[in-house]
Amino acid sequence: MNDAVLTVDQMRAAEQAAMAGGTSEWELMQRAGAGAAQWVMRVAAGRPVTVLCGPGNNGGDGYVIAQALHRKGYDIEVVAPVGPKSETAQHARAQFSGEVATISSLRNPVIVDCLFGYGLDREVGGVFAELLEKLAASNCYKIAIDVPSAVHSDSGKVLGPLPQYELTLALGAWKRAHFLMPAMGSMGARRLVRIGLELADMSADFSARPHLTAPSQDAHKYRRGLLAIIAGAMPGAPLLAAEAAMRAGAGYVKLLSEHSHPDAPAELVIEQGDFAGRIADDRISAFLVGPGLGRDDSARERLERVLARKVPTVLDADALHLLDRTMLDSADPAKLCITPHKGELAQLCATFGIGAEGKLDRTHALREATGLTVLAKGPDTILQSDVMTSFFPRGSSWLSVAGTGDVLAGIAASRLAAHGNPGRACEEAVWLHHEAARLAWPAFSAGDLARAVKPAMAAFL
User: Fold this and answer.
1) Do residues 43 and 156 share a domain?
2) In a domain, 217, yes or no
3) For FRET with 304, which of 120, 274, 324, 407 sits at 20 to 30 Å CA-CA?
């Protein structure tokens, strides 16, 4: 089962539900602090630790962490520029048996940030901003508790000085900021500390690692899925996509192209001429349209013809610039998935009259307006399918090279041909893409990445 990713309101509701069921706020704070303390001790390994405590319940978590470490014999420094304000945080402060300072030089080798938690909704200033600036400049191992103290939990927006943390410990549940840029880029490793909350029926989740299955014993190439990739003005991009698709599970990959491809692998079938007849083949399980397609009238006509077939299809690159409401009206949106990067997502929102700001809100609004499955790719990849929003582990920064999006599209189309489910195909594609990047690193080309899809598949069988 995937882990839920909560908004601020959903997290508060989950905590309130736990308290209504008989678990006190103090008990929840003890569970969170004790769980976080285990991680702090693991990385501190006996070294002195400084805990920065704010005035709210995140600061209360800090006092619980500090007391847990104090009982284990750690040299603990607690710094709180302002005293605790909430009743539960005040109780946590009273349970801490050590001294509390208002200022510090922050020279301990491990520093834990408990200044502000998931409820922050305003700019961080004054003494807290100064403390975060000092933390950012400190040469230490930095741990953020729940979310970093200058981060807006629902949007990932930065609201003040943001240090680079080595570890972020989410308390109770993942928050949206854990998977959204720019905040995500400063969080380091992210780990979840469970505190016993009931998190059923949530609208967003952290994608679980997929398990792929081998073909059935009576499988043949068409039953495993025939994928047709539509080429256009530029031959390189669709060939890259095909290289990846052949290694991602489809039984048969065809490239419909008017170009010659002397470097194409022998096992890739390339067909020319009679485009309408070629795409009318009832054995085709899925299409990929967009990489290298071009944006002229010929490209538009090809896209229109494919969409009218109402076969499961991945749309990428140029197809995302050509797609409009008229085309969509003649298609079956439930069978379509799109894979836009930031610029393409903005273009699609303009095309469909969507005024939302921010990647998360745009993907949701685009899904609502079109019925498409939306895979908004990037360092903070977001999948919007049906009523669920899915977030993913951060991929390798080595993916920032030309052509890797074509590879992702090829993987997604291959998975779509294999089983026909757009959301599932996109989810599997992201994990395979990330694993291929891990195997191909460092400084790989898109071709290297496509060839790494085969060993990546083995990791999920």
Assistant:
1) yes
2) no
3) 407
pLDDT in tens, 355-387: 999 999 999 999 999 999 999 999 999 999 987
The b-or-e profile of 170-180 (16+ CB within 10 A means b, else e) is bbbbbbbbbbb
Average confidence (pLDDT) over 419-434: 98
- For CA atoms 160, 66, 178, 361, give the dihedral sign: negative
Sign of the C-alpha dihedral, residues 95, 99, 102, 104? negative
Same domain, 21 and 108: yes
With 0-12 / 13-18 / 19 or more C-beta atoms within 10 angstroms meaning exposed / middle / buried, residue 355 is exposed
CA distance 432 to 457: 7
Q: For the whole model, what pTM was predicted?
A: 0.95
CATH number of the domain bearing residue 428: 3.40.1190.20
Overall average pLDDT of the 249-265 stretch: 92
1 pLDDT more than 60: no
Q: Which domain holds residue 44?
A: 3-205
Rounded-to-integer distance, Cα 389 and Cα 357, Å = 17
> What's the angle, vertex CA 374, arms to CA 369 and CA 375, rounded to 5?
160
pLDDT at 262 exceeding the cut of 90: no
> Is 221 inside any structural domain?
no
Do 345 and 417 belong to one domain? yes
Residues 6+ apart with CB under 8 A from 338: 314, 315, 316, 320, 323, 348, 372, 373, 374, 375
Task: Transcribe 323-385 into DSSP letters.
Answer: --HHHHHTS-GGGEEE---HHHHHHHHHHTT----SHHHHHHHHHHHH--EEEE-STT-EEEE
- The CA distance from 182 to 166, in Å, is 16
Please give the tally of structural domains in the chain: 2
318-344 tens-digit pLDDT: 999 999 999 999 999 999 999 999 999
pLDDT tier for residue 399 given thresholds of 50, 70 and 90: very high
My answer on whether 346 and 249 are in the same domain is yes
Spatial separation of the C-alpha atoms in residues 453 and 436, rounded to whole Å: 5
Residues 432 and 291 in one domain: yes
Examine the domain organization and report whether 161 and 232 are in the same domain: no
Answer yes or no: is 146 within a domain: yes
